[in-house]
Amino acid sequence: MSRAKRADAGSSVPHVADSHDLIRVHGARENNLKDVSVEIPKRRLTVFTGVSGSGKSSLVFATIAAESQRLINETYSAFVQGFMPTQARPEVDVLDGLTTAIIVDQQRMGSDPRSTVGTATDANAMLRILFSRLGKPHIGSPSAFAFNVASVRASGAITVEKGAKKTVKATFNRTGGMCTRCEGRGAVSDIDLTQLYDDTKSLAEGAFTIPGWKSDSFFTVRVYAESGLLDPDKPIRKYTKKELQDFLYHEPVKVKVEGVNLTYEGLIPKIQKSFLSKDREAMQPHIRDFVDRAVTFTTCPECDGTRLSELARSSKIKKISIADACAMEIRDLAEWVRGLKEPSVAPLLAALQHTLDSFVEIGLGYLALDRPAGTLSGGEAQRVKMIRHLGSSLTDVTYVFDEPTIGLHPHDIERMNDLLLRLRDKGNTVLVVEHKPETIVIADHIVDLGPGAGTEGGTVCFEGTVEGLRTGGTVTGRHFDDRASLKAEVRKPTGKLEIRGASTHNLRDVDVDIPLGVLTVVTGVAGSGKSSLVHGSIPAGEGVVSIDQSPIRGSRRSNPATYTGLLDPIRKAFAKVNGVKPALFSANSEGACPVCNGIGVIYTDLGMMASVSTPCEECEGKRFQASVLEYKLGGRDISEVLAMSVAQAEEFFGSGEASTPAAHRILDRLTDVGLGYISLGQPLTTLSGGERQRLKLATHMSEKGGVYVLDEPTAGLHLADVEQLLGLLDRLVEAGKSVIVVEHHQAVMAHADWIIDLGPGAGHDGGQIVFEGTPAELVAARSTLTGEHLAEYIGG
């Protein structure tokens, strides 16, 4: 034993290194935080609670986690920092005691059509190496099994500059696994030409019916009309065979249009590059509608949806190809890998086995590696990100989770709680933003923010234990033990929606009648087939309004007013009263401040350091030209209107000179979903996940439809807000709508008129209807996992 160790062991004085056991935050002012100061214990599980919009994410993600990541990035060289995302220092006076932060958020996995569960984790890469070593016949390196890599062959002369220059002949080839027909997407598209143009018109008459293709568009329409390859005044239906071929399929070629060099390309390949190479969910609604009308996607006949070439599928291990392995449920694949005994690849098999077992352990064993990443729910995506941290040797780091129980059945929440506690017990600090009482109750320390949302939040209302929260008198404390009771009487259906032979994903030829005119909840454990049944069998369209979990995408320029369409009636009202053009009242159009281009701030790029944003001196952050701000409506200029909260604007546009019924109707819907506190001009990037979900719900409520399909509307909702949501669902039903909700929250189940429970398990253990009936019948029977948890919830 060294002298230092002996001195330590014999001393009762704690070591100075052990005194750093707190993360101290003083004077945090990110977003709506009001000089927040908290002390968070290290190596403990701390849960942050509060109503949606109270400042939880601003404190945990935008302050603590952001500063930790910024400080770690600063340890790299300036050269390396130039390739990394830059982050500004959060608005906070003191941040002390930080450790390395690992963020596991709810951001979707990415919208690339070629991204799958396997490519998003290390599983696919390890499988490719495994097949390149053990596959029979041997076909090449790991890239030969990659559906994202195309085969390449080339030959020719190359100049070698080594001493005296000399030209040598060289050949090059690389074997990739990509299917040549679908280019690794697994699906091929068939385009309906009637949706692209009106063949009775000529190009000069505006034949194109593609969104955004205006007749004077220089880079699209005019390049066809003025290319010299086509007669712009000839109706398309009168084109010769060669002209039609040139119009639809011509190879890219340079043409001159008014002295400018442009590329002419056939219409079909241009549409494929412009629209079909992007993920459908990432498109704007009107573009998505066009693609849905114009394009039909079918499974690639050449690779049968596997994305892989015939050569890649021909190499097998124990009669299993890599395509077969990726199509298996992960728990089955884990068993198959466990049966491979090959000493030459033992470390690889061990690593692959650990990754696959982590999927199973975290409750995602029902997924397959070829599942497109864009189809995962927010909760599934978050748990996939957790996989790389399970079994990690790292300790004394800070794990930051954003509502890890989203999308989880009460039965699965227990498993998630165990994982959080395991991470803590290894000596890590675990910070969790959460609303579910089942997870809050396991916390060592609780920080409750509020008391309200938006400008009414941003302060710490309570710090302490679960027992202290219950008696603390905060909104969370008062609602902590809330339990919805079963209805004394359920509504009678007015009809039924028949689903017959549903077999999407894991559904097993399901027949079910969904009652209409009532509130129906479809429930079951994660992966049991709920979304497959509802979204696969009730497509959005005539009479059906479907609100799924796809995230709202928006830039700094997007705000609630632009997203909901509220800005249009406001601009028209300003224009009418002042006798000017509506475009003047848009910060993205003619009215924009010329210095900051309507953003309100000036960004200064400092290379590898964080960009600095300063309020625009010309418009003082108001985003509009000074001349535009002279025009008033009801005594307010456009910048003052956009600074109003929804509640203030609802009153402003409800009566008097500013009375605008079209704007008032939209504001009514925003209030209905509990967003009365957000400001009209607040950038979408500053809204929390729960706020974005409700903003989406408010927007869709204006659509005309008899059936509303909602996918987990309680995601991101505080206990106090769930009651308001139930009231909204009731109002929709009372207005004659049929509401179908995919949901795990027991309060929504208890409030339902009819429950359809899928299961009994996930993946191939699910896909069946295990119960149909009223909530009272489900509780009385206790025949399913959902029934047991609902009975426990209501105290039955």
From TrEMBL:
<dbReference type="InterPro" id="IPR003439">
    <property type="entry name" value="ABC_transporter-like_ATP-bd"/>
</dbReference>
<keyword id="KW-0234">DNA repair</keyword>
<dbReference type="GO" id="GO:0005737">
    <property type="term" value="C:cytoplasm"/>
</dbReference>
<dbReference type="InterPro" id="IPR027417">
    <property type="entry name" value="P-loop_NTPase"/>
</dbReference>
<keyword id="KW-0267">Excision nuclease</keyword>
<dbReference type="GO" id="GO:0004518">
    <property type="term" value="F:nuclease activity"/>
</dbReference>
<keyword id="KW-0067">ATP-binding</keyword>
<keyword id="KW-0238">DNA-binding</keyword>
<keyword id="KW-0227">DNA damage</keyword>
<dbReference type="GO" id="GO:0006281">
    <property type="term" value="P:DNA repair"/>
</dbReference>
<keyword id="KW-0963">Cytoplasm</keyword>
<protein>
    <recommendedName>
        <fullName>UvrABC system protein A</fullName>
    </recommendedName>
</protein>
<dbReference type="GO" id="GO:0016887">
    <property type="term" value="F:ATP hydrolysis activity"/>
</dbReference>
<keyword id="KW-0547">Nucleotide-binding</keyword>
<dbReference type="GO" id="GO:0005524">
    <property type="term" value="F:ATP binding"/>
</dbReference>
<feature type="domain" description="ABC transporter">
    <location>
        <begin position="490"/>
        <end position="785"/>
    </location>
</feature>
<comment type="similarity">
    <text>Belongs to the ABC transporter superfamily. UvrA family.</text>
</comment>
<dbReference type="GO" id="GO:0003677">
    <property type="term" value="F:DNA binding"/>
</dbReference>
<feature type="domain" description="ABC transporter">
    <location>
        <begin position="17"/>
        <end position="476"/>
    </location>
</feature>
<keyword id="KW-0677">Repeat</keyword>
<dbReference type="Pfam" id="PF00005">
    <property type="entry name" value="ABC_tran"/>
</dbReference>
<keyword id="KW-0228">DNA excision</keyword>
